[in-house]
Task: inverse folding
């Protein structure tokens, strides 16, 4: 029993990442009808927003510290981050420590801007072209974005730790009445899951309860009619693209402490996220979220020792296997709508 | 040979290019400053033609039927593994290895195609991608006894090799064609130029010519016409009472066999396999080659494969000091600026250049290099008034 709970928990953080990326993919597909292969790159850029901010925060200048001497008796030079000068050392340390959560504020405008630029600059010209062309051009864009990041940040993963307050693990076992130390779970992963839940909730609430969201939903159902009613639906879809980019970026920002970001992390997630979208049903937002968590949990179940003994290697392929079975038995996916991408 | 005059000309041109490639690719004398642009060394020439085969095969599927497979590297990988096992168990002669690689890749693509072709469009792309990633993950983990996992496979001295008999003391197993070793080369020095004629390259080139000939025949056959019909309007095809599935499946298997052939040849040239050959970026690369050259055209994929492999080898060899040499004649400030501007695109930044190039081609030149060539050609011809040129597009009447 405790092993099962542990695996469900383990699957949640990866599932959250899948769900967030798949949600963004589905938003773009549902509104603009574009298959965005560069969405993984957006996730990766989000992660590098966190890296960038933590670097900016630790920008330092050299100060001669008269109180400390090196072994020759000369005053020692110390690096002092600029942030100390502004906020003082104590507050500065806290800010540097909380770099990753603070990056959220930094990442949102950056990602929305990138999303706008992508949609207006490139993807706009591909609405009328076949899906294959859209896949190809966004695939090329993903390579370009990835290589730009690689040029500036190098090819090695860059460790970006979570705030010190979240470094420990939470003992679920003790709370639920099992033996202590059987179900332990890092705090940050809990934070990630909660964060993902909030973001997903916010996106759904935005679509469901605001006038803007209502218009967008109407546009997803019948773009032409909404346009005929005198609403500039293109503008709203562009904004949705920005929001989708921001969702992917935020998923990346918060993922940095779990997995040190490197330039190809986006592609690794993208392939799986596409599978998630297909399993959930192309164009279905709730399907994408559901499938994301489902496949994340399934993946962690498949990597249990008991399962691996009977079916070796199943953890590597379970997601693809599920996708193949779903596509063959239920081509629309778990919650796909009728008539979306069926030809 | 069942070809019309234009196709014969095309085939002959390709054959001549292949035959004289060691000269054409080595235009600069040894030791000169431009020698780094020479591509006439065996390893690169072999890759040029082998990836040409891979792209020709991919084009039969994507160019004719419009089905975009993102998992073709899996067939190349499976073919490679089959070939290396043939070399380990049977003989170091490359003929059985190549034959078995084609057969195994064909069987595997029959299985994958039979399942994937139930869906079309993006679903098809994702299904093939899923299969390829699955094969890659399995080759890396569970199938290690067969695939060698991370270390890959190489022929070992104590492999059985039933037909070859024992090796002489101190000899290592080398791939050969009835005794002619694949890495055997003849070097011809003319003045400062050194031309290398490599046995493996010529074998691969002959195989590519055969593959190219077969692809011409497929393009011109009624079967090829059916595949084009699938691309332009599958629904209409169904309404006329024809089942498109056997045709697309056949195209899929053929292109899978081409990929297996390329995999087998890769093994024949350097007798080693690793799972990274099946990674999805490798599948992406063949897509790039085909699109860049011109999907749906005969010569396009070969051009694309040649272009990408050539640039990959040459551009990634340029480094900062070479750049500084080039721009040395300029004033210092401008030189530094130029070097800083160009530097991200060369050496390790080759993929950035490739990505940008690919995007430009998809955006402005959907027909690839071939279309670019035709446009340039049209600029100079201007025989017919514009307007009656066939643009190859069909507008379905709906």
Result:
């Amino acid at each position: 029993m405790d092993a099962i709970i542990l695996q469900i928990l383990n699957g949640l953080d990866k599932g959250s990442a899948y769900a967030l990326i798949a949600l963004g993919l589905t938003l773009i597909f549902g509104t603009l009808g574009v298959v965005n292969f560069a969405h993984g790159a957006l996730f990766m850029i989000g992660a590098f927003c966190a890296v960038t901010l933590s670097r900016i925060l630790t920008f330092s200048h050299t100060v001669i510290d008269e109180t400390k001497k090196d072994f020759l008796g000369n005053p020692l030079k110390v690096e002092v981050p600029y942030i100390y000068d502004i906020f003082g050392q104590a507050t500065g340390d806290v800010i540097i420590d909380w770099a990753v959560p603070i990056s959220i504020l930094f990442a949102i405008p950056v990602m929305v801007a990138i999303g706008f630029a992508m949609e207006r600059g490139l993807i706009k010209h591909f609405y009328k072209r076949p899906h294959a062309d859209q896949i190809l051009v966004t695939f090329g864009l993903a390579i370009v974005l990835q290589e730009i990041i690689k040029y500036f940040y190098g090819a090695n993963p860059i460790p970006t730790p979570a705030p010190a307050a979240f470094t420990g693990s939470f003992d679920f076992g003790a709370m639920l009445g099992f033996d202590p130390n059987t179900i332990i779970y890092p705090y940050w992963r809990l934070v990630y899951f909660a964060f993902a839940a909030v973001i997903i909730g916010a996106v759904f609430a935005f679509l469901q309860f605001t006038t803007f969201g209502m218009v967008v939903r109407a546009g997803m159902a019948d773009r032409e009619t909404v346009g005929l009613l005198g609403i500039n639906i293109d503008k709203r879809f562009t904004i949705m693209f920005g929001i989708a980019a921001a969702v992917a970026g935020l998923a990346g920002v918060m993922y940095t402490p779990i997995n040190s970001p490197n330039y190809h992390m986006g592609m690794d997630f993208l392939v799986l996220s596409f599978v998630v979208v297909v399993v959930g049903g192309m164009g279905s937002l709730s399907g994408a979220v559901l499938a994301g968590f489902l496949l994340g949990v399934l993946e962690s179940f498949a990597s249990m020792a008991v399962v691996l003994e009977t079916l070796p290697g199943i953890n590597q392929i379970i997601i693809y296997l599920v996708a193949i079975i779903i596509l063959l038995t239920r081509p629309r996916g778990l919650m796909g709508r009728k008539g979306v991408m069926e030809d | 040979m069942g070809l019309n005059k234009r196709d014969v000309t095309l085939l002959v041109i390709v054959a001549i290019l292949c035959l004289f490639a060691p000269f054409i690719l080595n235009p600069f004398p040894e030791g000169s400053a431009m020698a780094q642009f020479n591509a006439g060394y065996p390893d690169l020439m072999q890759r040029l033609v082998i990836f040409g085969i891979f792209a020709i095969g991919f084009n039969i599927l994507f160019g004719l039927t419009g089905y975009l497979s993102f998992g073709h590297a899996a067939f190349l990988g499976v073919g490679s593994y089959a070939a290396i096992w043939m070399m380990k168990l049977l003989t170091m002669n490359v003929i059985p290895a190549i034959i078995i690689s084609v057969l195994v890749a064909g069987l595997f693509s029959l299985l994958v195609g039979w399942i994937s072709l139930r869906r079309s469009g993006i679903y098809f792309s994702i299904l093939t991608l899923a299969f390829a990633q699955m094969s890659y993950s399995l080759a890396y983990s569970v199938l290690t006894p067969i695939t060698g996992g991370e270390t890959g496979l190489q022929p070992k001295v104590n492999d059985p090799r039933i037909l070859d008999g024992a090796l002489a003391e101190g000899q290592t197993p080398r791939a050969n064609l009835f005794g002619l070793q694949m890495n055997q080369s003849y070097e011809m020095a003319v003045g400062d130029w050194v031309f290398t004629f490599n046995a493996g390259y010529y074998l691969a080139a002959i195989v590519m010519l055969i593959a190219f000939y077969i692809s011409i025949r497929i393009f011109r056959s009624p079967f090829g016409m059916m595949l084009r019909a699938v691309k332009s309007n599958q629904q209409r095809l169904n309404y006329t009472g024809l089942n498109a599935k056997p045709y697309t499946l056949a195209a899929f298997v053929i292109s899978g066999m081409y990929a297996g052939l390329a995999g087998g040849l890769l093994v024949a040239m350097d007798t080693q396999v690793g799972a990274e050959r099946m990674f999805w970026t490798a599948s992406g690369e063949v897509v790039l080659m085909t699109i860049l050259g011109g999907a749906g055209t005969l010569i396009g994929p070969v051009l694309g494969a040649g272009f990408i492999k050539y640039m990959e080898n040459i551009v990634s060899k340029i480094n900062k000091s070479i750049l500084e040499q080039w721009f040395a004649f300029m004033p210092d400030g401008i030189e530094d600026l130029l070097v800083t501007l160009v530097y991200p695109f060369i050496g390790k930044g080759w993929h950035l250049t490739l990505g940008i190039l690919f995007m430009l081609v998809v955006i402005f030149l959907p027909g690839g290099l071939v279309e670019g060539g035709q446009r340039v050609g049209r600029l100079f011809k201007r025989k017919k008034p514009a307007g009656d040129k066939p643009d190859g597009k069909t507008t379905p009447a709906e």
User: Anything to note?
Assistant: The radius of gyration of chain B is 23 Å. Chain B touches chain A at residues 66, 68, 115, 118-123, 125-127, 129-131, 133-134, 137-138, 140-143, 235, 280-281, 284, 287, 291, 344, 349, 351-352, 354-356, 358-359, 362-363, 366 (CB under 8 Å).
